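Budget justification aside, the reviewers requested a transparent look at the raw inputs and outputs of the sequence design task funded under Objective 1. We therefore reproduce one unedited record. The lines immediately below are the structure tokens for a 270-residue chain.
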């Protein structure tokens, strides 16, 4: 399944601990989470300038509360059902075997952690976490509470005041006076500084970067594989179609992440 030159590179040239991974929505597609772009992608159904934008969300709540409730239900309905697939599992095994140093992800679905990965840098936050807008304290947004919230939203979805009350309950005020919000980076917002600087550090140190399932069109995250390449890393890309970085990749594996990542992990550990 893996071309001979890639298999030979993986076996002979990858040093333990000098491999890093960078993942996008494609790694979770086979867990049932639609990607953002392309056919059937989330942005085909919803306008990211509205639902992935803090101001857009506030205005949607005021003007079309039912649409906001539908979006939240759709979004979390899928996330709550998703389970790690063989690609997530293989990446976590590579970390356990000390082959993979760090996994940098644009995903907010928590599936890498659910699969057992520990050294994860989340560039775009996590949908199962809330963060205080005042003091930046974070709390886990438990799945049970999320399911409870979506069930309530389904029932009361057309009234602005009802929706406001429900959202106020699940995104409460913090002791500092600020309000909790979902800990996801929205359009127009800065990436978390600490995560970004850890990512740069990791990419400077790695010798090989495995890029899995990203279109590589959203900056600044999409610039990170390029940064690794400029700092001497060999890039191996796994995607079922070309990405914006494909011509810079040293090796391209075309196909499904759930098949190719385990095959790469097997070559690296057997
Ligand atoms: P995209 O939806 O832009 O790209 C997904 C990529 O995964 C595409 O290149 C697909 O070809 C590939 N793909 C899909 N299924 C695959 C599979 N089974 N195996 C291998 N590859 C597959 O998602 P991202 O690149 O992650 O930002 O998008 C980056 C950011 O854009 C997201 O983090 C999000 C979005 O707007 C924020 O929410 C801030």
């Amino acid at each position: 399944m893996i071309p001979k030159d890639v298999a030979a590179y993986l076996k002979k040239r990858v040093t333990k601990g000098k491999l890093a991974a960078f993942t996008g929505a494609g790694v979770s597609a086979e867990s049932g989470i639609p990607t953002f772009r392309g056919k059937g992608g989330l942005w085909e159904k919803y306008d990211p300038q509205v639902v992935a934008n803090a101001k857009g969300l506030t205005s949607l709540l005021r003007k079309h509360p039912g649409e906001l409730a539908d979006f939240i239900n759709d979004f979390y309905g899928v996330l709550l059902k998703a389970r790690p697939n063989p690609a997530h599992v293989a990446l976590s095994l590579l970390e356990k075997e000390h082959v993979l140093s760090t996994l940098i992800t644009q995903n907010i679905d928590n599936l890498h952690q659910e699969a057992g990965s520990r050294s994860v840098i989340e560039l775009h936050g996590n949908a199962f976490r809330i963060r205080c807008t005042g003091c930046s304290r974070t709390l886990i947004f438990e799945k049970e509470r999320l399911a409870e919230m979506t069930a309530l939203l389904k029932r009361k979805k057309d009234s602005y005041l009802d929706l406001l009350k429900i959202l106020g309950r699940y995104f409460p005020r913090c002791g500092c006076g600020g309000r909790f919000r979902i800990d996801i980076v929205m359009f127009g917002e800065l990436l978390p500084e600490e995560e970004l600087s850890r990512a740069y550090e990791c990419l400077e140190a790695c010798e090989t970067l495995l890029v899995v399932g990203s279109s590589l069109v959203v900056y600044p995250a999409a610039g990170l594989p390029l940064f690794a390449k400029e700092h001497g890393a060999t890039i191996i890309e796994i995607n079922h179609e070309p990405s914006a970085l494909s011509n810079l990749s040293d090796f391209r594996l075309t196909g499904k992440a759930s098949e190719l990542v385990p095959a790469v992990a097997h070559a690296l550990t057997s």
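The mean pLDDT is 95. Residues 24-26, 29-30, 35-38, 41, 48, 52, 106, 124, 185, 213-215, 218, 238-241, 243, 256-257 surround 2'-O-acetyl adenosine-5-diphosphoribose (CB under 6 Å). Computational costs for records of this kind are itemized in the attached budget.
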